[in-house]
Amino acid sequence: MVQVQVERFAYDVVVIGAGGAGLRAAIEARQQGKRTAIVTKSLFGKAHTVMAEGGCAASMGNVNAKDNWEVHFRDTMRGGKFLNNWRMAELHAKEAPDRVWELETYGALFDRTKDGRISQRNFGGHTYPRLAHVGDRTGLEMIRTMQQKIVSLQQEDFEEHGDYEAMLKVFPECTITELIKDGDRISGAFAYWRDSGKFLLFETPAIVLATGGIGKSFKVTSNSWEYTGDGHALALRAGATLINMEFVQFHPTGMVWPPSVKGILVTEGVRGDGGVLKNSTGERFMFGYIPDVFKGQYAETEKEADAWYKDQDNNRRTPDLLPRDEVARAINSEVKAGRGSPHGGVFLDIASRLPADEIRRRLPSMYHQFKELADVDITSQPMEVGPTCHYVMGGVEVDPDTASSVVPGLFAAGEVAGGMHGSNRLGGNSLSDLIVFGRRAGLGAVSYLDGLAERPTISESDVDDAANRAVAPFDWPTEGQAENPYTIHAELQQSMNDLVGIIRKEEEVQQALDKLVELKERARFVAVEGRREFNPGWHLSLDLRNMLLVSECVAKAALMRTESRGGHTRDDFPGMDAQWRNTLLVCSSDERGTHAEVAAKPQEPMREDLLELFELSELEKYYTDEELTQHSGRAGQ
Amino acid sequence: MSYKGNFKVWRGDDTSGGLEDFVVEVNEGEVVLDIIHRLQATQAPDLAVRWNCKAGKCGSCSAEINGMPRLLCMTRMSVFTEQETITVTPLRTFPVVRDLVTDVSYNYQKAREVPSFTPPENLGLGEYRMKQRDVERSQEFRKCIECFLCQNTCHVIRDHEENKESFSGPRFLMRIAELEMHPLDTEDRTRDAQDEHGLGYCNITKCCTEVCPEHIKITDNALIPMKERVADRKYDPIVWLGNQLFRRGSHNKH
Ligand SMILES: Cc1cc2nc3c(=O)[nH]c(=O)nc-3n(C[C@H](O)[C@H](O)[C@H](O)COP(=O)(O)OP(=O)(O)OC[C@H]3O[C@@H](n4cnc5c(N)ncnc54)[C@H](O)[C@@H]3O)c2cc1C
Ligand code: SF4
Ligand code: SF4
Ligand code: FES
What region holds the Fumarate reductase/succinate dehydrogenase flavoprotein-like C-terminal domain (chain A) (predicted)? Predict the structure, then answer.
């Protein structure tokens, strides 16, 4: 038994995560009059959202007036290969413009069009220029804007209560390790301060998970140390379900050299602004990789592709801007065929496409990144790029309108939530997802609170349990060998990368699952030195449990889905199978998170008026015949 | 192309500490943060360091390398010779928490004291119109990644704890300039800059500009123009008269 000293706090809503989704949820909850806490593993303003580059998708129609929510909805469903939760895709497409404009009222300064409106750029899979952006640092603008909005709300609270933190408080560098329930409802959360190692308890009836993704389980990734799937694992252990975990997005363009920066992102904005992919023979190879479902929608010659940048009404877009899964697979094939670049990627050329000062103006941080980290001047040399683990489509299964999970009082928004993006997310659709569903999760929590008859309570034994589990890595095993958390982490990353990566097959995924069994066993003997004050080895030991559980979900779901679709490619089942389109793989676990299970369930059919937004001929590429009998194109036959 | 590099890393906490020697493998293309991570994985698992993006975008990994304030993730090993001993210490202006991690809460307090963006009341969602050239000035300042290297460097507070109370530092003086130059903001913070945030302490040495990893021209584009605005305001006859009247008015009541 440890001697536990636990600092206690009581809030109406606790938001876990200070990225775009968490901040937007907290703003909403506070504006609705609820006392709100924001808990984050890093400092305020440093969450992963800060790294987003290209932009935030919203059909404002500022650059091409033909754009509207219906076009955005169609693009999103196509990008996700029609496996998306269509209600989420609908809400997202409809509400994104207002959410972006709202950021302007908080002080955001997006790049402008000639007539002074928010400028919008092209991105993969988006029919029209749609991404609001600030150069290539859009995420920084969004996070800073919401951070500053929170400060302004705190200033209002100071005026009223004499205390900046009366209604809204940020707990920086604080990690949640357990959610606590009273019966089947949420009643609190247990945490430690990263700096002092001391424990905290939040007593709260409503929790919004906004913890982001899982990329740190893979070796080559654009994600930071924070992406250990904490929210995914917390949700599972609290009894919530995850969906779509087999769909992991490998961004086609990560840096490949030098080794220490391998995986760092090269924004899709490079291609949106004219950059093209080439192999070692100088060929623009993407023309050879337009899949059947997209035939007719993309340019077939270089001439047409180049003309498209200027005149989008009379030309089709370049296949360099196919959805990410297509481009990543194409790069993979080129490298395998021996047409790769010296360091195992392909070339991304913007130097020959735009004048140097234009490149520096539009892509300042890419210019900076290559110059400083790789000694490459992108205004005169091509970049070398290759796929990198970037985003997880899978996440907590939520009610589209309220963001509620199946556990009363537990909500989820942003990358940790599942459904919105189906099997593959379009670039730019995450930042907009954060603000649309961040707000909805805040509102969902508020209305849940308003309907609550009494506050759930926390039992002391749950608190003791949580504390014991948290300090376990300091107990060195009395027999057997102690394990180093860094070693286990490295082996996990290697295994997931090699065996459950961009191209999968049964034997390999099975091997990964065997490896996971071994790693889970060894993880029980993880032991760390030192004290509890800012001890990264200890922090990693606790994060490891989450990574192992979430990786098990990814691998098990990947094994079960015997088709290829979006962010899940099976070498042994290369085709897309209409029977699988409507099937969700749902993950759950036991209370301790020692074991994950996956079960299949059908998804709710799309509402008819939404289905009618698509041509029958397009739907036929994805749907089974029986599913389409109601479509007006068929009904007449 | 790997070699054994010599490092001195400051280890300790708010009560005591000192430099510790390490010999570590260094590989081609690596940055100082890679070396710190290798130390954690192989020799010092509890070595404390902050980082997030490893790409110069989040401003978490600020420290001093051979006495120079820098981002650990953007300092390439190739700028040093293989024989050189590289010394890594925490930011000096802020209290140490542990090893390379400092308590930067001063900055968050100062951020909270700057009056926020105040939107125009007559414009609804989607009605904002601003010219690109008009937003560019503030956009330059919004590139700030809040690494606080400029705050750490400015001599007004480096080694002058006593000035922290009345001086917000280049980062937040620049934040005031950013809001003042926002085409649609309706608040006036000019007097505040001087009276509440200590603009007067700045004697435009430009040390902040030199260390900014985002290459923001803090002094030339934010601080000097703010100083000019303050000066204009002081000598503007109408404002001057207004101030005098106000003073006299309040005086008369006694
Ligand atoms: C390099 C890069 C570029 C990208 N560019 C784009 C783009 O141009 N457009 C686009 O739409 N998308 C882009 N994305 C994707 C997008 O940025 C992310 O999906 C999105 O920012 C995730 O936001 P979030 O709010 O869900 O979580 P995050 O911003 O990741 O925030 C997660 C928060 O949860 C906290 N947290 C996690 N676990 C715990 C815990 N146990 N206890 C307490 N706190 C915890 C973290 O500290 C953090 O504050 C990009 C991603 C990367 C990596
Ligand atoms: S220019 Fe002013 S703010 Fe910048 S370092 Fe010098 S005195 Fe400090
Ligand atoms: S102005 Fe520059 S040095 Fe100062 S905090 Fe911002 S990015 Fe860092
Ligand atoms: S880790 Fe983000 S700036 Fe260095």
Answer: 489-594
Q: How confident is the model at residue B248 (pLDDT cuts 50, 70, 90)?
A: very low
Q: How confident is the model at residue B240 (pLDDT cuts 50, 70, 90)?
A: low
Interval A287-303: pLDDT, tens: 999 998 888 999 999 99
Domain count for chain B: 2
Q: B151 CA to middle of ligand 3, Å?
A: 8
Complex-level ipTM: 0.92
Which residue, chain included where needed, has tokens 């963001």? A403
Pocket of ligand 4 (CB under 6 A): B 51-54, 56-61, 71, 73
Contact B13 A533 (CB under 8 A): yes
Same domain membership, residue B115 and residue B44: no
What is the crossing angle of helices A20-31 and A138-161, to 10°?
A: 30
Alpha helices in A500-607 (DSSP H): 506-523, 536-560, 578-581
Query: What does the alpha-carbon distance between residue A50 and residue A628 come to, in Å, rounded to a whole number?
Result: 42
Which of A101, A106, A535 is opposite residue B117, by nearest beta carbon? A106
Pick the catalytic residue from A324, A329, A425, A545: A324
Residue B144 sits in a domain whose CATH number is 1.10.1060.10
On whether any CB of chain A is under 8 Å from the CB of B53, the answer is yes
Cβ atoms of A525 and A481 closer than 8 Å: yes
Residue A359, C-beta contacts closer than 8 angstroms, at least 6 positions apart: A350, A351, A367, A378, A379
- Residue A439 annotated in active site: no
User: Of B102, B135, B152, which residue constitutes the final position of a domain?
Assistant: B102
Q: Which three-class secondary structure state does DSSP give residue B145?
A: coil
Q: Which domains, ranges and CATH numbers included, belong to chain A?
A: 6-247+393-450 (3.50.50.60), 256-388 (3.90.700.10), 474-582 (1.20.58.100), 606-637 (no CATH)
